[in-house]
Amino acid sequence: MSLRSAFAPASLLAPLALALVACSQPSDAPTNPATPMPGIDYAVENSTVHGAARAMGNHTWLWTRGGGPAQIHYSTADGRDLVWMVGQRRIFQGQWTVENTSDSSGQQITQICLRYPGVNFGGLSATPTCRPAGTFLGEMQQREGGDPLQMNGRTQALFVIAKTPANLAEIEGRVASIKGLSNY
Asked: What pLDDT shows up at residue 11?
């Protein structure tokens, strides 16, 4: 066996060496579980009762998270919360509050609480369900000022929403097209 045949040709070793070096280099891929979001983190940590109440009151919002069907809420300025749920004609009546409390580490947090007396359906409950205000507001799929669906004062919706809407405008358009046909 010649000395030359005992060693692999240099043309084969160079790519192998480059591959080994590349694999041993630190990666730019994140190794932490989440990307920091300072703006959202600040809003969650620094929510105030006044700010959260202003963000909730007189707003219509779409909620698609959780185990139940999608929900469209109108939260009045006086603390009532009206819910039009996918698959239901009934408009559920409830209440919203904002309060300061302490988290498990003793830090003061502002939370939004929802409750629906006499209701235990589709994620709505008679017992208060509370979440940190910044988290709660950030998880709303969409939110806009006012009562464009004219839910305030109603117990029945004009129609049943058959499937989760893409956005509030989808339902607003349907309500607007029917509005003149009834006393809606």
From this structure: 52
* Predicted confidence (pLDDT) per residue in 72-98, tens digit: 999 999 999 999 999 999 999 999 999
Asked if residue 69 is part of any domain, the answer here is yes
Q: Is residue 150 part of a domain?
A: yes
Residue 39 domain-assigned? Answer: no
| Average pLDDT score, the chain | 81
pLDDT of the residue at 128: 96
**Banded model confidence at residue 103, pLDDT cuts 50, 70, 90:** confident
Please give the residue range of the domain that contains residue 103. Answer: 47-179
- Residue 38 located in a structural domain: no
10-19 LR contacts (CB < 8 Å, sep 24+): none
How many domains does the chain contain in total?
A: 1
